[in-house]
Amino acid sequence: MVEITPQKPKLILPNWSWPLWLSLALFFLSVFAFVFLKVYFARIQEEIVSINNQIKTEVGKVSVDDENTVIRLSDSLAALDGIVSNHSYFSNVFSLIGSLTYSKAVFTKFDADRDNGVINLRGSAQNYTALAKQMVALRENDYVKTLEVRGINFGSTGLDFDLMLGIDGKIFIKQQ
C-alpha cells in the first residue's frame, strides 16, 4: 500500500536577493558618508575656532604706539596724495609714446620739458617708409601739436633720426 502524504508546497520566490544586497550596500555607504562628513565638518570647525583664537591673540598684541604710528603714516600718505595729484604725471606721456611707436622704429632717447610742452625723441628706423609711418602716427594724435624732424642720418641699423614734438600740456597733468 502506498500512502500518499501531502507535502508542504514549496514557496518559490523570484530571485530578488540582489536588490536587497544593493539597498543594504547603499544604506551602509550613505551611513559611512554621513559619519565621515560629520567628522570632517567637526574637524574644520575646530580649525576655525583655533584660527579665530590665534587672531584674537595677535590682535591683543598690537600696541597703542603701533596704532598711532599707522594713523600718522596714513595721514602723511593722504597729504602726499594731494600734493602729487597736482604735479606732472609722466605715465600718460609714456603710454602715449608707447602706443604711437611704429613697430619698425625704436626710440633710444627720450627728453621731456613740461614747462615748454616739448618732447625730444631720438631713435632709429629700418628705412624711410618706417620713419614716415612713425611721423604720421605721431602727427595724427590730438596731444601732439607740432612735429619737427631735427636730423636724419644713416646708421648701422638703418636711419637715425631726431624728432621734436610740441605737446599739449594737459598730458602732463594727472587725470582724475
Describe the fold and architecture.
The protein is of the alpha+beta class. A four-stranded antiparallel sheet has the order 1-2-4-3. The model has no long low-confidence stretch (mean pLDDT 82). The chain has four helices and four strands. It is elongated. The N and C termini lie far apart (120 Å). The chain has helices at residues 17-61, 64-85, 91-100, 128-139, and strands spanning 105-113, 118-125, 144-155, 158-167. The longest helix is centred in the first third of the chain and has 45 residues, at 17-61. It has two domains: 32-83, no CATH class; 91-172, General secretion pathway protein M, EpsM (Gyrase A, domain 2, 2-Layer Sandwich), CATH 3.30.1360.100.
